[in-house]
Amino acid sequence: MADRTVTPRPAPLGNMRPGPMARVLTNVRAKSVPKNDPERLTTHSRIVHDTVAQIEQRVATAGELATEPAFWERVRTAALLHDAGKVAEGFQQQLLPEGPFWGQRHEVLSLAYVDLLACAGEWTEENLLMIATLVATHHRALHPGHSAVPGGRQSLAEQYNSHTRWDEAFTSTPLPDGGPQIQVTRKLHRELLAWFAGALHMDPPGAADGGANLAERARLLLDHLLMAWRQPVAQDLGLLAVLAQGALTLADHAGSAHERLQTHMPLPTDYLQRLPYPPYPHQWRSATTNGHLVLVSPTGSGKTEAGLSWAAHQLRTMPGLPRVVWTLPYRASLNAARRRLQRDLVPAPGADIPDIGLLHGTVAHTLLVEAVDDECPGDGTSVGAEPTAAMARQARARAGAMRLFAQRLRVATPHQLLRGAIAGPVYSSVLLEQTNSVFVLDELHAYEPETFGRLCAAMGLWERLGSRVAVLSATLAPSMITLIEESLAQPVTCHRAPQGTSPVRHRLVLDEEPINAPESVERLRTWLDECHSVLVVVNTVATAQALYEELSDHARSCLPDDPHAALLLHSRFKNRDRDAIEKSLLHRHPERVAGCRPGARAGGLTVATQAVEVSLQLDFDRGAVENAPVEAVAQRAGRVNRRGLHPEGPVEFRVHRTEAGRPYDAAAVAASWEALSVLVAEGVETLSEEDVERLLGLAYDTDWGRAWERQARWARDAFAEDFLSFSEPFHDRTEFARGLSEQFDSVDVLRSEDIEEYRDLTTGPEGHPLRASGLLIPLRIGQLKTYDARYERGLGVHVLNDGVYDAATGLRPSPDWEPETIL
Fold first, then answer.
1. pLDDT by residue (tens digit) across 601-628?
2. Which of 134, 143, 391, 596 has the smallest count of CB within 10 Å of its CB?
């Protein structure tokens, strides 16, 4: 890093004359809200400083943080000083209603105060560098990324350069009427310095002639930072810098929202002893495992309870207040998991239910639906009354608290965790929250090799951050376990549920005919005539819609008084319609219990895509599915005779051959069929846990399986090198964040026919965007072209100009478009 000489004493502010309305420190604002009494700069600075203490209580000095004793003191100091530049008159005017845009970065002016206090406090060069870096980067990157991002925010290096007129920016700014705007008066400057010095328990800087003014101090210190972080740095230094940035940004956001971080842990450390039944052997073993865990356990064998027991055990031996993060692949599975944890875990004193965090793209909508259901409970089969604006505001506030990681137990998609590795002010707090945490990765098999490899790389980082990892799955191939073990430095304990833990549930039948062939459809009709509840799972939305339309009338004729005799589930529904479908499914087809099925009805048809595969605890009498990758086939089987309690014993589970692999890798689908065929040729007619293990081994011991392993290993190593080295911690990574979003994210879209209703719900006295969220349809970004989507800035959403929609079948392309195949 470049040498830098610290000016020994502060200089006078120069020839500055206060304006007619000279400010005093007590009326300097940090925010424009609340409107009647906006938050003051000193108040905000103190709140953010105090919030750092809450974060330190959580994270402690776990993992890499133990190598830097000054870590938390630097963050606390930066928290006090991070908004010092808001004292500028230009910023204060900008906070007024319809105030003029200032155009400067307050955090750059804050550097002048960092410099002054560093001189007075005789800080070490290392402390000055880190504190100044945190102050400068809590909103913007220092340096631009390696590729331009259209419409992206400028880095500080791009905004402040050799063309910058520093005195005009931060000393005396010309106004349109020709007069000057004095940015900081001498009196206000001295008040602010005295307040900071008191908060830092040091003498305030004195006045000495001949030194630099505020603008010059800001310029010199920013130049120093730009030079220090321009070239790659040691990985350990870069990681600690990003974690410190995460601590400051989290404290700033939580402090601004006046959100206290919770200390209550809903998961009790004696969780296993509270189970209402004698634990299975694999649950006992999980509950006594120290460190990382891989658990392979069949559907319906208490895998979730085993994971919670393991997590509870880890909490006893970790420092601070560790968090538990439970990940699942899909929104529906996350919502179901959260409901289950709320039902089974312990609320905080005085609360009715545990506060479980939820992190996915439509959190606020999910919370709004819950609020409506709480206010207007129905029969469990449909969404209740229209939400009010008050409900919408409350739901958005709760979603905001979840994004601030207020809760100590949360469920999330792995995408939310991978974003933390992107770094930058937006994501560094996500990374910090992955320190001193307990991760339970449920159904890890559900990801393609690139994501699986990236998650393995993330596991290695989490270990460096003092966190622990458990991987749970009913279907985990040997090569997957090997990759996990390779990615972690500490030993990984692998447990399997004993053979016989789960009863034999299925009679496996392979069918060469397509699932939509006439004889196949006739068999489904026969099952419905026999009053069986029938699950049909296919690989594409178009196939699901077509089969549903072919069979739904017949299913309803078998149960004419049942409005939910036929249901279709995939991802391309309006939020409010999908909510109603999922509730109807859970009510209509719950897990069978010994002796009876409360709330369930005989018969009924459900057609679905992979949206039904994970964490929806459903139970059907018969299953017919399209062939898919071997894990997907096993998961589909897990929704048929789920607990082996059907009075007939094992029931028919039929797998239909499909020539088209879409949306899956065709080689993966072919390997699955080859493995299933070997099982049948060997005389296997069931899908017990032993059979599934054999099936996985056969499928992955193929050219496809070996290529899968190579691809996952390459993705792991590339992600670790590109994102987890942290050698350029303060370069903009927006382009990578956008790329990750395009791969994983869905975008909310609105049908043009719904525009007027959307406006009615979002505007007016009772208007709120969340009130209209039920009209939105999630689509993958790559699907927007199919529906001729345009972004409507006035509405804040993409609007579809094309496509056909029905509440029972969802969205489909217009007839002149080739059918989409994305799930």
1. 589 999 999 888 765 778 999 999 999 9
2. 596
Dig out the tokens for 373 from the structure: 């259901």
DSSP secondary structure string for all residues of 618-673: --BSEEEEE---HHHHHHHHTTBSTTS--TTSSEEEEEE--S--TTS-HHHHHHHH
CA 446/CA 434 separation, integer angstroms = 22
Q: Which helix (H) or strand (E) holds 799?
A: strand 797-800
DSSP state of 294: E
- Is residue 401 predicted with pLDDT exceeding 50? no
Q: What is the mean pLDDT of residues 256-260?
A: 86
**Whether the Cβ atoms of residue 437 and residue 58 lie closer than 8 Å to each other:** no
Dihedral of the CA atoms 772, 775, 778, 782 (nearest 10)? -100
Residue 143's identity, in one-letter code, is H
- pLDDT of residue 599 exceeding 80: no
Q: What is the largest CA-CA distance in the chain?
A: 96
Please tell me the distance from the alpha carbon of residue 783 to that of residue 781, in angstroms, as a whole number.
5
Strand partners, 571: none
d(CA 376, CA 386): 9
Three-state secondary structure string covering 534-552: EEEECCCHHHHHHHHHHHH
How far from 50 is each of 248, 259, 319, CA to CA, in Å?
A: 11, 12, 20
Q: Measured between alpha carbons, how far is 223 from 221 in angstroms, rounded to an integer?
A: 5
pLDDT reported for residue 645: 86
| CA–CA separation, 423 and 737 (whole Å) | 9
Residue 681 belongs to what H/E stretch? helix 666-681
Say if residues 360 and 327 touch (Cβ distance below 8 Å): no
The answer on pLDDT for 402 being more than 50 is: no
Task: Give the containing element (helix H, strand E) for 496.
Answer: strand 492-496
Tell me how far apart the alpha carbons of residues 144 and 35 are, in angstroms, rounded to a whole number.
Answer: 35
Q: How far apart are CA 472 and CA 679, in angstroms?
A: 25
**Cβ–Cβ < 8 Å for 734, 419:** no
Cis peptide bond upstream of 663, omega within 30: yes
- 494 phi and psi, to 5 degrees? -115, 120
What DSSP letter does each residue of 175-223 carry, written as one string?
Answer: PTTS-EEESS-HHHHHHHHHHHHHHTTSPPP---TTS--HHHHHHHHHH
d(CA 582, CA 611): 10
Amino acid at 72: W
- In a 13 Å sphere around the CA of 187, the CA atoms on its Cβ side amount to 10
Distances (CA, A) of 315 to 311, 338, 359, 380: 6, 20, 22, 36
Cβ contacts of 583-586, under 8 Å, gap ≥ 24: 583/380, 583/381, 583/382, 583/383, 584/381, 584/382, 585/612, 585/616, 585/618, 586/336, 586/380, 586/616, 586/617, 586/618
Nearest alpha carbon to residue 139 among 127, 150, 128, 155: 155
Question: What is the rounded CA–CA span in Å between residue 39 and residue 95?
Answer: 11
Judge contact between 315 and 290, C-beta under 8 A: no
Q: How far apart are CA 108 and CA 83, in angstroms?
A: 9
For residues 36-60, give the mean pLDDT. 95
CA distance 298 to 474: 5
Tokens representing residue 746 in the block: 């869905």
Q: Which of 664, 673, 638 is nearest to 512 (CA)?
A: 673
**Two tokens at 342?**
């709320």
Peptide bond into 150 cis (omega under 30): no
Q: What phi and psi, each to the nearest 5 degrees, are found at residue 687?
A: -130, 60
